[in-house]
Known about the structure:
1 helix
Amino acid sequence: QLSTITWAEETSAEAPAPASSDELAKKLANPLASMVSVPFQNNFDFGGGPNGDGFQWKMNIQPVIPLSVNEDWNLITRVILPVISQSDIAGTVANPSGSQTGLGDTVASAWMSPVDPTSTGWIWGAGVAALVPTGTDPNNFLGGNQWGLGPTFVALKSSEQFTYGILTNHRWNVGGTDGRTATNASFIQPFVSYIPGGGWTYSLNSETTYDWTADQFTMPFNLIVSKMFKLGETQAQWQLGGRYYAD
């Protein structure tokens, strides 16, 4: 299962009237929205590892910061820094990995995105995704101890109540392996969100990774419910959902 609290703040050269909770929920469903947000996503995964009894808690700290390049283009930046505590999530049946707590590897992405949608209403962004070896475990059970770089692309479309689209990236090794197989992985995240009103959002997505070297899919599906609320004077959103690993 997973839960998220997101702090959200609109960015504008002027001072517009405060957005409604549904408008903010719609922007939070859009990874290319011109709004600063800082999600803290807590993920609880059970039944992993070589013996099927491993556990992992991972909190992804995911600040999203849009920057205006000119009147036609925005630069959207996102960093995902994982804080991890896990037990017997790696290793072998005879020798599981034991427990580790610390930082995982960071993924930093930047998309150039047109300010205006296309004539058909699609919003898109293209850019670069980087893997940064910030894992703190000396045995590398929390990270791969290597640098990665590759392209990333987002495309989405919004209607009054629906937002749907896809986010992808691919990362190749560009330095450091510490004897491990070099990174060569694709990430594909199709998503759809339904916003019925009252600040509520219902979302379905898949965070699929394909390791080209190991010929292995990791394919979790997430079903999530979200709600906007006020945290003092700050707009925030909580989420709660379940995850099922199809592969």
